[in-house]
Amino acid sequence: MNKIVRSYMPLVAAVALLSSCEKTIKVNTPPHTSALVINSSTMTGETISVAVGRSAGVTSYKTSADLNINSATVVLSEDGVPVQALTYDPVSSMYNSALVAKPGKTYSIKASFAGYTDAEATTLAPGTVKIEEMRVTPNARATSNERQDELSITFTDPSAAGDYYMVTIHSLPPQGPDSNNMQYSYSECVYSPDPSIESISSDEIDQNTCHSSEGLFFRDELFNGKRKELKLYVREGFSRAFSVIDNDTLRPTITLYHMSEAYFRYMKTAQASRQNEGNPFAEPVSVYSNIKNGYGIFSVVSSDEKEIK
After folding, report:
1. What is the mean pLDDT of the chain?
2. Is-contact 144 133, C-beta < 8 A?
3. Which domains does the chain show, CATH number per domain?
4. Overall average pLDDT of the 219-248 stretch
5. Which candidate, 240, 193, 239, 247, places its Cα nearest to that of 216?
6. Per-residue pLDDT tens digits for 61-75
7. What share of residues in the chain are helix, strand, coil (percent, to 5)?
8. Is the overall model pTM greater than 0.90, yes or no?
9. CA 122, CA 109: separation in Å to the nearest integer?
10. Which of 97, 191, 260, 302 could serve as 128's disulfide partner, Cβ 3.0–4.6 Å?
11. Helices and strands (DSSP H and E) totals, the chain
12. Taking Cα atoms as reference points, which of 229, 104, 209 lies closest to residue 156?
């Protein structure tokens, strides 16, 4: 028994020594003034809805806190003309309108609430950029770890400069006890040699960089006004997967989003922030906002989706 105790003494001493080297560092967080938060991302062809809340500082925020505001005055305008004061729906916790977002229209939102500075934002609804062709080439590429299928989409970029895009790939659910869950989007690694694809951080990327299938970002600087072919690579067999649930055949899908620069920057920084969660060594990411006198995002986005088969 004494031998066991003696054998642990060096370990205990080492732990004590390491513990004595710890130092508590007090971090002075800047003071935070609560402001209105507006969040709204609407697809063209859908009615515009808005969530309104209030911000909280890092030291004052509690997970149980309800930051939603249900009695704000929210006014929606189209092409500079006020159209409707939005009504609050307690079920969805959203302020809803009857206005359908149309491509080419400019929309503005203004939220007011007692004790807060009015928050507002404006966005242009982009037109839909169609996926003209989608091709699948099985076993098109081999890496040291796996064989990969090639997904190729072709579209025509509008003639005006300054178009922003995001591609997402929605995969099928894992089969098993939880396969009844119809939420069949989970992250896959997607690779691309295309120089238009952007990193969501400051890191350099290449054809072997794992991009999240939740969003690959690029803009038209290298192909403005031209027909563009984008090649992506996914794990072997991904493109041939399908599932039948309640007589419905589900296949993986690929979606091309056409968006404003503001929403592009918001989505990139939001994805980077999510990827850094739980990593104490990652540099904090400030999520982009286009809300004047507040936080959040107000945007209208267009999209086109194809099944992968």
Report:
1. 86
2. no
3. 36-124 (2.60.40), 133-287+303-307 (no CATH)
4. 86
5. 193
6. 677 678 999 999 999
7. 15, 40, 45
8. no
9. 7
10. 302
11. 2, 19
12. 229
